[in-house]
Amino acid sequence: MIQSMTGYGKAIATLPDKKITIEIKSLNSKSLDLSTRIAPAYREKEIEIRKILSKQVSRGKVDFNLWIDKEDLSDAAVTINEALIEGYYKQISTISQNLNIPVPNDWFQTLLKMPDVLTKPEIQEVSEEEWQIVLKTIEEAIEHLNTFRNQEGAALEKKFVHNIDTIESLLATIDPYEKERVEKIRERITDSLENALDVEYDNNRLEQELIFYIEKLDVNEEKQRLKNHLTYFVTTLNSKAGQGKKLGFIAQEIGREINTLGSKSNHAEMQRIVVQMKDELEQIKEQVLNVL
Q: Is 96 helix (H, G, I), strand (E, B) or coil?
């Protein structure tokens, strides 16, 4: 069963003093393109998080987000050092009086800009127990991501099978026009010799030339190879996940055979059928880029 590279997974861990949210989004990419946004408290765990994602996600443009919502925001707020502000205020007032320099118009803004007045709370070290909870939440988010990818993959597989079946049906409709084409070629050459050129010709030699000409336009080999490629595509769909690149290669081979059919067809109705095949194949090529 195939997987889509498009997916979304989210998981939440609720702790006594905070809520940890993990969110993973993925889109199609030729390889694993991983970007992370991690809350400062868990920044030191980034390498470990990347290893987990690389092992379980494998391909796609992946955005990983980990953020914290604290229950008590008072601890997270920037701290104003009141004692330091008082010290700065007294010093500036004294200097103003001694040197006869005007005091600031906005004392508060001036004092807040002084060094070390505003301090951020220190990042608390993450305990092993809390980290194990976070790891479990990451695994849960990855599981949701892969479930989403499986669902999208099932929808893609259904579409691919429809496209392949349509190409096979169109291929079967070529047969009657192929026989008709041979007769028309024979009639056109004979009429040209008898009416337009008005010359005598050797019937045996004409038959030989016709056989040679018709063999050059024969499409039986292309039809058989195309059937084989179509069967191989469906077989690959039913194999293990991670076959996106392989399906892309098979689609290229299908395209080559369809193009050769078009160049050899020499018949308006056959060419119309070939155009319809190309339309179905184009839909496959467009969507196969999303396959893991």
A: helix
- Residue 60 DSSP SS3: strand
Q: Where are the alpha helices (DSSP H) in the chain?
A: 46-57, 82-99, 107-112, 128-172, 174-191, 203-216, 220-237, 244-265, 268-288
Residue boundaries of the structural domains of the chain: 7-73+128-148, 79-119, 150-288
CA dist., res. 105 & res. 247, Å (int): 72
Confidence (pTM): 0.72
Each residue of 5-47: pLDDT tens digit? 999 999 999 988 889 999 999 999 888 899 999 988 888 899 9
In the numeric block, which tokens belong to residue 56?
Answer: 């379980």
Whether the CB-CB separation of 61 and 29 falls below 8 Å is answered with yes
Q: Which fold would CATH assign to domain 7-73+128-148?
A: Ribosomal Protein S5; domain 2 (3.30.230)
